[in-house]
Amino acid sequence: LGGDLWGLQKIDADRIGFYIIDFSGHGVVSALNTFRLHTLINESNLNWGDPKACVHAVNAHLVKVLAPEQFATLFWGVIDQSKNTLTYSSAAAPPVLVGKGGDVSSIDFLDTRGLPVGIVTTYAYENVEVEFPSNSFLFLYSDALIESPDEDGEMWEETGLLERVNKYAQVGFDEIQPRTLQEFLETAVHPIPDDLTTVCFIRS
């Protein structure tokens, strides 16, 4: 049972939409929230081509159904291969890592600030467009990856994650996710205190 959820959908021949959401808390309550949201996304006629519209729709729904102390972080994106772009809207999601055009030195975090969904309906989420050419990757994750302590009580935090992704990208973009996860699982104190999800998109 967990409070993380991710999904994707082919929009047309050139575009793919995707999201990752992390509900506050964990256990049965968070799992029920993910189940309800999954149902909403599958049954609603969302405009997958417009990330901010999807975030607004999810937010409006969650404001109605979540308890006052509950919320979720959300990242919704669209990769457009014809335009070589990534368009995204974020609601306080953990900073997503992007590497562009096979250039390992270009790996950096996207700006994913914003208000979590499920709190108020008046917040204006926006779309951000960045270049996403061939031979690029996106690495998405829930905050357990950077906030879980090792045996010394140290957390990776964003800088530690960037160091590891840079290291494994030297081997190949397809090695980023498995090697990062392997190192995390070998060094983090178990049981891990929160749900963990990682997703890596690689554009050839």
Going by helix content, strand content and strand pairing, the class is alpha+beta
User: What level of helicity do the residues show?
Assistant: 25-40%
The radius of gyration computed from the alpha-carbon positions, rounded to a whole number of angstroms, is: 17 Å
First-residue to last-residue Cα separation? 34 Å
Write out the strand line-up for the largest beta sheet, numbering strands in chain order. 1-2-3-4-7
Silhouette: globular
Q: Which regions contain 5 or more consecutive residues with pLDDT less than 50?
A: none
CATH superfamily caption: PPM-type phosphatase domain
The structural domain count equals: 1
- Count every beta strand, where a strand is a DSSP E run of 2 or more residues: 9
Q: What is the oligomer described by this structure?
A: single chain
Name a few traits of the molecule:
26% strand, single chain, 5-stranded antiparallel β-sheet, 204 residues, 9 strands, alpha+beta, Phosphatase 2c, domain 1, 5 helices, 4-stranded antiparallel β-sheet
Describe the structure.
By secondary structure, this protein is an alpha+beta fold. It has one domain (4-203): PPM-type phosphatase domain (Phosphatase 2c, domain 1). It is built from five helices and nine strands; from the N terminus they run E-E-H-H-E-E-E-E-E-E-H-H-H-E. It has helices at residues 28-43, 51-65, 144-147, 157-169, 176-187, and strands at residues 4-10, 15-23, 72-80, 85-91, 97-99, 108-109, 128-131, 136-141, 198-203. The strands form two sheets. It has a five-stranded antiparallel sheet. The protein has a four-stranded antiparallel sheet with strand order 6-5-8-9, covered by helices on one side. The longest helix has 16 residues, at 28-43. The protein is globular and about 45 Å long. The protein starts with a strand and ends with a strand.
